[in-house]
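agent> Task received from the user: take the single chain below, predict its 3D structure, and emit structure tokens. No templates, no multimer pairing.
agent> Plan: (1) validate residues, (2) run structure prediction, (3) serialize to tokens, (4) report one or two observations.
agent> Step 1 OK, no nonstandard residues flagged.
tool_call: predict_structure(input=
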Amino acid sequence: MSTEPKPLTAAAAGDPVAGKPVVGDAVVPLPVTAVTVLEDRAQVERVTGLDLAAGVQRLRLGPVSALAVDHTLHAELTGTGSVTVLDARIVRAWTPRGPEPSEDEDSGLRLRIRALDDRQAELERRRHRLRARLDLLGRLAADLLREIGEGAGFGETERDRWSRELDRVDAERDTHAERLRATEAEVEAVEAELRAARHAVSLTDEEPAELVGHVELTVESAVAGPARLRLTHLTPCALWRPAYRAVLEGGSLTLESEAIVWQRTGEDWSGARLTLSTARSARATEPPRLTEDRLTVTERSAAERRTVDVELREEEIAGLGPAPVLGLPAVDDGGEVRVLRSPEPVSVRGDGRAHRVPVSAFTAPARSEYASSPEVSPLVTQVVRGDNRSGHVLLAGPVDLVRGGGFIGRGSMEFTAVGAPFELAFGSRDDYRVVRESKESRETTGLAQRTVVTRTVRLHLSRFSAPGEHGDQVVAVRERIPVSEVSAVEVRLRKEGCSPEPDALDADGIARWNVTLPPGGRRTVTLVYEMTATSKVTGL
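)
tool_result: status=success, residues=540
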């Protein structure tokens, strides 16, 4: 069977209709039709139609990104008859920079650079001379002052000569210092112009070195006819992160899910189907090694049996789901691979810049409340809650907040399952203020020497309303009390001392009041609780 290359025909992507014959070293276009972007790389899919001749033939397709990973190259060929891919490989060609033109063929920009180089060298020589002259004048002034000191010590009085010499030296130093400042300013201006000119030359006159890849495909076809080629490979220098835009209008919240895509693979993705995945193909899939974990029991000492050491610590209240992600180092998918798709074909240039790609949008009723945690912040924040109706999980990411037709700030979205509730903080309200006061008293009572710690917290709420503003506003105020984990310490809410009594107190020790504030109104909330400890307790 002959292995010589035979004529072939290229057709448009997805169209197996015969096109113009391609013979010899002609290149068959291989456009990007679909891209799956992972956390730190992308899987590129290319589809095109071919007209194959019977027998073995070699195809040259491309160009493709020179960053394509060779061992991930996979080609599938389907046609009317039996077609087989015998070999597929990526061949790269390096195009070096072109030679610089001679002096007679220099452009005006290059001539300007040459003149600026000469001017810069001349200014550097002048600056060196001026600095040397100023150094010499400084030593001269020091010698003159030393001569004046020695002469005055010997009783010499040549005031007129000394004054003339000092004035002459000072005048020379001022003159040369001014020339040096002017020269340094001119040097900076020439260097700035020279940098701009060289950058312009690099963009216009110089041909950049280029590394281009092509796919060499050897196929065997039993009969001549149309065929469809599908080729996939991985490429680095591409990543994506989720982002959102929340618009609050009246009682509804519109949440737009987007993907920010960066790619510098050396080629543009034009009109490609985009898929976004949280798969981590570079992470090892082997399970961790199991190591022996020994538990030992030791008898407590007499001192440990006599005392109970306790301490107050803060615990973050967390529900089901992944731990929160600080910043955005990676995509938080809750431990399961998530796949999102762009509803329309997109175009992403390979310039390394951020490109926003819409993914989904939905509108849901918004449950809004004004909330305050005075122990954390003296501000009152508008918190909006809604349900995830996007049809896919909401990954952790930044949220652009829009209220009243204007951008008010940026928040963060936590991982949210389909149909699960989420909440967004739409910034603080400038017309509300909360002042927190805390007072603590300690006493020992009874024969058992029990220690009682009484803490009183007062919260003063104020509403500063504009003239003509009407209607009451409910502010949800939250304050926490300790929760004891040992029987030797008891925590009790003194309801008779609270004013008013909390509307709710959950198992985590969070007390809540729904405080109604009229325009210009003020309210004070008082919380009193006791911590009682036995004589064995230390550290409280």
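agent> Step 4: summary for the user.
The longest helix spans residues 108-153.
agent> Done.
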